[in-house]
């Protein structure tokens, strides 16, 4: 019995001594801590522990999993109704609107949470942060992508997990070195951290980031922060060294150039060649489609950069986008051959049907892929509705133009056939008269 008690005590002490915590402070007074138990680190899934800490002069602060606000798993902390506790609200990032409370998040606000000395602190255990609606995170990996944000101002003092929060004052994205946070038992490491019974590594954030959100419930307790030294564990490289606003501008630019190509220019050029009839119409058609291709090339470049860095190449939107790019690169060559053979044979050839089929398929597929892109970016219902209406109108107009063009072509060929028949009849009469 005595040996069992000693063994239990030894394990308890060992778990406290070897609990690892990684710390990152985007501001001198705003800090986030992360601790991953050995059991979670070995399997890649399970409980993780994190801490949010900031003065009460901040209206709220948030920590999120992901590279951009869209699709991120966010945890927002603000003061509770009595002003002595904290509320932690789990939310899902939905793009350009306020993150919504996520009832599927499994979090527990732990001992040591609360408001003390003008500082609000939340010690949180999350049991399903390895996967959420919009993303996942492997805690057995070497690093992971996170975002953070904060809003300064009067305290919210609310127990409502879905409390309305105003847009952030500052946001950033960063890479967290998970190896610095791994170690220890599946237990609250932050209470122990006050007595120094942890191994804590500090890290610095990279630029870029999220917008508000968070999870949870209220808790009482005194504020506690871990103070220790450590080595930097955050990598400021390439995509993640960009500011969050720059990433959003890249995402916006990708959408704008793709829409210019598939919602405006490409359908316009295709409709004109069907319904219009004037000198140099073909040249105008070529110019418009060439401009559309250039616009789409820009969109593809931006989209590919984002998809690679955000690990989205396995999604339908980027895959369809690359297929469309390959098809459109062939169109100028196929179109040139079609035009030459059309003039030579004064009618459609196999090249003509290839050019028409690829063009029509590309336009409709591009319109559909725009909707998939909005879904992938977690765009709001209003943005989806507006795009759906515009894309629908463009698609219908293009279908009408196709029908009109085919009918027009049929009438033209009918007249040409009738004229040729009449000419042949006249020539036949002339030959007969000569013989007579």
UniProtKB/TrEMBL annotation:
<feature type="domain" description="Cytochrome b561">
    <location>
        <begin position="216"/>
        <end position="413"/>
    </location>
</feature>
<dbReference type="InterPro" id="IPR006593">
    <property type="entry name" value="Cyt_b561/ferric_Rdtase_TM"/>
</dbReference>
<keyword id="KW-0813">Transport</keyword>
<keyword id="KW-0472">Membrane</keyword>
<feature type="transmembrane region" description="Helical">
    <location>
        <begin position="358"/>
        <end position="379"/>
    </location>
</feature>
<keyword id="KW-0732">Signal</keyword>
<dbReference type="Pfam" id="PF16010">
    <property type="entry name" value="CDH-cyt"/>
</dbReference>
<feature type="transmembrane region" description="Helical">
    <location>
        <begin position="385"/>
        <end position="405"/>
    </location>
</feature>
<feature type="signal peptide">
    <location>
        <begin position="1"/>
        <end position="19"/>
    </location>
</feature>
<keyword id="KW-0812">Transmembrane</keyword>
<feature type="compositionally biased region" description="Basic and acidic residues">
    <location>
        <begin position="411"/>
        <end position="429"/>
    </location>
</feature>
<feature type="region of interest" description="Disordered">
    <location>
        <begin position="206"/>
        <end position="232"/>
    </location>
</feature>
<keyword id="KW-0249">Electron transport</keyword>
<protein>
    <recommendedName>
        <fullName>Cytochrome b561 domain-containing protein</fullName>
    </recommendedName>
</protein>
<keyword id="KW-1133">Transmembrane helix</keyword>
<feature type="region of interest" description="Disordered">
    <location>
        <begin position="411"/>
        <end position="436"/>
    </location>
</feature>
<feature type="transmembrane region" description="Helical">
    <location>
        <begin position="319"/>
        <end position="337"/>
    </location>
</feature>
<feature type="compositionally biased region" description="Low complexity">
    <location>
        <begin position="221"/>
        <end position="232"/>
    </location>
</feature>
<feature type="transmembrane region" description="Helical">
    <location>
        <begin position="284"/>
        <end position="307"/>
    </location>
</feature>
<dbReference type="GO" id="GO:0016020">
    <property type="term" value="C:membrane"/>
</dbReference>
<feature type="transmembrane region" description="Helical">
    <location>
        <begin position="251"/>
        <end position="272"/>
    </location>
</feature>
<dbReference type="InterPro" id="IPR015920">
    <property type="entry name" value="Cellobiose_DH-like_cyt"/>
</dbReference>
<dbReference type="InterPro" id="IPR005018">
    <property type="entry name" value="DOMON_domain"/>
</dbReference>
């Amino acid at each position: 019995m005595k040996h069992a008690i000693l063994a239990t005590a030894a394990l308890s002490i060992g778990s406290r001594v070897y609990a690892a915590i990684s710390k990152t402070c985007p501001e001198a007074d705003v800090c986030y801590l992360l601790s991953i138990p050995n059991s979670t680190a070995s399997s890649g899934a399970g409980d993780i522990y994190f801490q949010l800490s900031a003065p009460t002069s901040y209206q709220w602060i948030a920590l999120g999993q992901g590279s951009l606000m869209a699709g991120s798993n966010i945890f927002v902390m603000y003061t509770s109704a009595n002003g002595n506790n904290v509320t932690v609200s789990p939310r899902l990032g939905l793009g350009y609107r306020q993150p919504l409370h996520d009832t599927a998040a499994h979090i527990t606000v732990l001992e040591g949470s609360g408001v003390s000395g003008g500082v609000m602190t939340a010690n949180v255990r999350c049991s399903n942060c390895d996967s959420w609606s919009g993303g996942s995170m492997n805690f057995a990996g070497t690093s992971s992508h996170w975002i953070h944000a904060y809003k300064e101002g009067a305290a919210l003092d609310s127990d409502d997990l879905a409390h309305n929060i105003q847009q952030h004052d500052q946001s950033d994205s960063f890479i967290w070195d998970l190896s610095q946070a791994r170690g220890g038992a599946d237990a609250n490491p932050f209470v122990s951290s006050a007595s120094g019974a942890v191994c804590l590594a500090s890290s610095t954030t990279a630029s870029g980031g999220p917008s508000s959100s968070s999870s949870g419930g209220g808790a009482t307790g005194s504020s506690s922060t871990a103070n220790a030294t450590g080595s930097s564990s955050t990598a400021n490289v390439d995509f993640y060294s960009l500011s969050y606003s720059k990433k959003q501008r890249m995402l916006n630019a990708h959408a704008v150039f793709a829409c210019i190509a598939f919602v405006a220019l490409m359908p316009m050029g295709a409709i004109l060649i069907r319904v219009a009839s004037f000198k140099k119409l073909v040249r105008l058609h070529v110019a418009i489609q060439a401009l559309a291709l250039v616009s789409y090339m820009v969109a593809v470049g931006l989209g590919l950069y984002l998809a690679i860095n955000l690990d989205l190449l396995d999604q339908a939107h980027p895959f369809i986008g690359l297929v469309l790019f390959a098809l459109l690169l062939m169109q100028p060559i196929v179109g040139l051959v079609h035009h030459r053979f059309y003039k030579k044979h004064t009618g459609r050839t196999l090249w003509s049907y290839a050019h028409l089929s690829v063009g029509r398929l590309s336009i409709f597929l591009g319109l559909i892929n725009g909707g998939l892109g909005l879904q992938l970016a977690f765009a709001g219902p209003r943005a989806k509705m507006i795009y759906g209406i515009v894309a629908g109108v463009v698609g219908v107009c293009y279908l009408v133009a196709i029908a009109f063009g085919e009918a027009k072509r049929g009438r033209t060929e009918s007249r040409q056939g009738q004229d040729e028949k009449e000419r042949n009849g006249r020539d036949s009469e002339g030959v007969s008269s000569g013989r007579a």
